[in-house]
Task: inverse folding
């Protein structure tokens, strides 16, 4: 993963040639709960989640946002920088689902000596349903 | 039938007001490791002090979302008096600006404010979108990150 990604090697419209796939489990959801100290019961108490109309406990939205961040960081490598990241939570995800994070290059430009790349990102489940569409802005080095 | 707004004058007046977003966070290596493992992202910059130092960092690097450790996401709910009963609350969206790296040993102070209130009609009825803005400042007084989460309240 430490081969530098250069600005010149990125094309507007290209798919990000890297994906992340993670299967959600009760354990993975609880690990995120502990990592951020978000102990809202919908994330670990199945009875509570059912009272809230969910079939099971749900993954934290920011956990999915963090996975989109990881997608960008693994793609751009240590020479790149993540500047902006956002996502909208369109669907809940449950233990047993497999999430895949994907992206596409939307734009690239140079400004004040930095080479910025804007990407559309999304988290989809095993059925291809998009749970969290998002956007990211990164900068990467130039060969020049 | 006249539809009543979900946003009272009192609520509208709260836009821009500070929120109780939590106490300063001591960024600890254990918390960094826990978040790295929760993301299943075992980046040596997060986990290996010697490696991180060899790359010019003062200590292990924190994942970008570490500032939300122990965040009081419910702060707007403590401040706002809703003129409706809530059927459900959902976390609607996340928006981040990352300005400076955060390392183990840093102390981050969150300062939140109520950024916006927006009313929408959805499939489950009327919804109130509550957006906060939390600015994180380190022990040197530098802004390291800005986080704008949106919570959605579905009205009965």
Result:
């Amino acid at each position: 993963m430490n081969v530098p990604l250069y600005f010149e090697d990125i094309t507007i419209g290209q798919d990000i040639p890297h994906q992340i796939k993670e299967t959600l489990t009760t354990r993975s959801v609880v690990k995120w709960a502990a990592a951020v100290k978000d102990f809202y019961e919908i994330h670990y108490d199945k009875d509570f989640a059912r009272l809230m109309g969910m079939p099971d406990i749900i993954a934290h939205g920011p956990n999915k946002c963090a996975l989109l961040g990881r997608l960008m960081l693994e793609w751009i490598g240590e020479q790149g920088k993540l500047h902006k990241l956002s996502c909208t939570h369109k669907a809940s995800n449950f233990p047993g689902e497999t999430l895949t994070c994907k992206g596409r290059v939307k734009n690239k430009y140079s400004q004040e000596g930095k080479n910025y790349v804007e990407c559309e990102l999304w988290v989809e489940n095993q059925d291809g349903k998009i749970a969290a569409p998002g956007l990211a802005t990164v900068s990467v080095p130039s060969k020049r | 039938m006249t539809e009543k707004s979900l946003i009272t004058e009192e609520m509208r007046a709260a836009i821009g007001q500070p929120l109780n977003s939590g106490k300063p966070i001591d960024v600890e290596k254990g918390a960094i490791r826990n978040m790295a493992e929760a993301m299943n992202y075992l980046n040596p910059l997060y986990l290996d002090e010697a490696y991180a130092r060899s790359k010019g960092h003062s200590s292990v690097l924190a994942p970008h979302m570490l500032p939300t450790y122990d965040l009081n996401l419910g702060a707007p709910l403590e401040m706002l008096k809703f003129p409706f009963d809530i059927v459900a609350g959902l976390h609607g969206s996340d928006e981040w600006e990352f300005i400076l790296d955060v390392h183990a040993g840093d102390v981050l102070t969150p300062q939140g404010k109520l950024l916006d209130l927006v009313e929408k009609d959805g499939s489950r009825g009327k919804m109130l979108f509550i957006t906060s803005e939390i600015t994180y400042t380190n022990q040197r007084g530098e802004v390291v990150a800005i986080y704008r989460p949106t919570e959605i309240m579905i009205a009965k």
